[in-house]
Amino acid sequence: MKSQYPELHKSLMNASSLIKAISLLIILIFVSCDQPNKNISDTIINGEVGTKLNDQLTPRIIEAMETHAIPGLSIGIVHNNDIIYAKGFGYENISTKSPVTTSSIFHMASISKTFVATAVMQLVESGKIGLDEKVIKYLPYFKMIGDDYKEITIRQMLGHISGMPNSNDYEWDKPQYDEGAIERFVRSLASEKMELRPGEKFRYSNIAFEVLGDVIAKVSGESFCDYQKNHILNPAGMDNSSFLKPRELPENWASPHEMSLKPFLINIYPYNRRHAPSSTLHSNALEMCNWALVNLNRGSFDKKKVLNNATYDELWNPWVKNEVGEIAKYGDIGLSWFVSEYKGEKTIGHGGSDEGFQTYFIMLPQKSIGVIVMANILPAPVEEITYMAIDIINGINITPIKPLASVPTWKILNENGIDEAVKFWNELKLNSSTDYDFNIQQFFNLYFSVTFNQEEDAIKIAEFCKKALSTDDILYLVELMEYALESNPEKQLTIKILDILKEK
How many Å separate Cα 139 from the centre of its chain? Predict the structure, then answer.
């Protein structure tokens, strides 16, 4: 995705191209919370480069926590086979004020897919899976409408050219926890249509990875989650990581937040075992550093072998050229991994986002650099923080992240009302247009306010937007709210917000 990699906000899949662009870019913006940056805990600073990161990156992260209203964030960086910098910032939960540490568990979202690819390649190495074999060879009950699905190969699924669609509803609010969830989901695809012919072109599909998870289970004789634990997570020193989530959120796990006029805890958690392969890895900064070391060392970790060295020639070979539409700038695709460049250096990585979480994982193999950044709010500038870290390591001057104009504006709105907030916004735009980010996408918090029933805030935001924004921007928000209404046509709050935005 964005030099990040295609991670789509799953609640917005298959919406209009405009909405898809929003979730792809993940550059939405929001308001400050209860000064989470004041809390920094569980630090690793290692060597001269680690000290430089602490001196230069730490204050930038603290600043971003304030200007982007991030409740909690954790980061880990490896260089030359060592963890050189790791920190936790802010809170796992803004209500309990439990501190984020480098051991705090975060929902990793689509970074999970890189573990699916590793499992598939382990089974390829053992001769149990062929990359160019048809999926139906391993799952005879896998069916979709028409006959095209019969031609889908394992390789095509890993490279997002299977032609399969995405899920419209991940049912985070109705999670399944049992071992049979993935197979049931695969069997349910019999009523789904293909979007493209297999191999035709890139089309990001989480569904394809659920099918691959079922392939892994049936070929190995273990459940997908058990296979991951036994053959990848434990050998990689990721003992506290898992694709499973207990019904009650344990201590030391980050809670999901969204934004209205301030960050708030959401009443769902993005977990459903039927979507484990595409989305539900849970891990922390330290153990994701181990994952970076596994891959930078091409399959080796602490005298254990996760993959053969030569397998990475297949995994990281950019065999799908990403040349169409918004995705084009995000790099080419290997087997689940996205292959791109940053300032002339080859990068390998994947991003992730689901309700309440955003993550970013990238490696520069030639420089032996790996960075993981995790936040417990969507969106968060995890990509920008990642590239600041890389620039610092490489001795390049960093570009600070622009503060969001909405942050001080919401403060005025809460304290002095809509008219004063509109006046402040206009003066800021007139006098400081290059110093702040005024992108319309920061008003995407209106969607979250409506979705999670923050009625008072939603009305304030809508009334502010009606007075402060251009006609084109209002039309943008109307389209956003109409999309929300499609999901729940009876929701009165959505109707009320649309009435405000459309009022003459």
Answer: 29
